[in-house]
Specification:
By secondary structure, the protein is mainly alpha-helical. Strands 1-2 form a two-stranded antiparallel sheet. It is extended and about 55 Å long.
């Protein structure tokens, strides 16, 4: 097969090229995409005590969201913002902050997301 100027010999080449392309196009390389380690508790009361004291946060124990889930969440949020305040000048900053937080997996990595998205939050505060 010949696709444009690229000669493809087998399906393995296509998969390898796709992985290289996705790695090169990743705008957020410092995000750890590996699922966090599962935290185990021997009893439910231990889990509740850990949750009460902030040691256990269930959202951080989940795996990262896929890019499709992030795109859908951002699209839904964008639609809600446009419906809520169609003439608000700050709505685009809200959407960009939400996009940034989702891209950096704010639920499973809040420290990374808060550092990376601080500029959007700051600009939104100035705008409002």
């Amino acid at each position: 097969l010949k696709l444009g100027d690229v000669k493809i010999t087998d399906a393995g080449d296509v998969v390898a090229r796709n992985k290289k392309y996705e790695a090169a196009m990743n705008p957020y390389p410092e995000v750890d995409v590996h699922a966090p380690k599962k935290i185990g508790f021997s009893t439910n009361w231990e889990k509740l005590v850990a949750y009460h004291h902030g040691v256990y946060v269930p959202e951080m124990a989940q795996g990262p969201r896929s890019s499709d889930e992030v795109c859908k969440a951002v699209a839904d949020f964008s639609e809600k913002v446009h419906k809520d305040a169609p003439k608000d000048a700050c709505k685009y900053l809200q959407i960009e902050e939400f996009r940034c937080l989702n891209a950096y997996q704010y639920e499973s990595q809040p420290q990374v997301a808060s550092k990376k998205c601080m500029k959007w939050w700051n600009e939104l505060q100035k705008c409002e």
